[in-house]
Design a protein that fits this description.
This protein has 74 residues and is mainly β. 0% of the residues lie in helices and 45% in strands. A hairpin with a 4-residue loop joins strand 9 and strand 10.
């Protein structure tokens, strides 16, 4: 696993979703961390997470009309 400091993901605007605990990137590309923690982002309200193990990844959707997979952008 690779240490990602406390960054869960980078948003489209370049800002980062951060937590107050260490985040590790697994070989499969998912990021893993253990709560309790708070998720912060410059463009969103804070989210408090209880004490649990968490896995974070990129959400994808499949467009059946174009027959392609793409990243979901919020």
């Amino acid at each position: 696993m690779k240490d990602c400091k406390n960054i869960l993901a980078h948003g489209e605007s370049g800002h980062a979703h951060r937590v107050t605990v260490a985040v590790m990137e697994r070989e499969d590309g998912l990021r893993e961390f253990v709560g309790p923690t708070t998720v912060t982002h410059e463009e969103h309200k804070k989210i408090d997470l209880p004490s649990n193990p968490y896995v974070s990844g990129i959400v994808k959707e499949f467009d059946h009309l174009q027959d392609m997979e793409r990243k979901v952008i919020d």
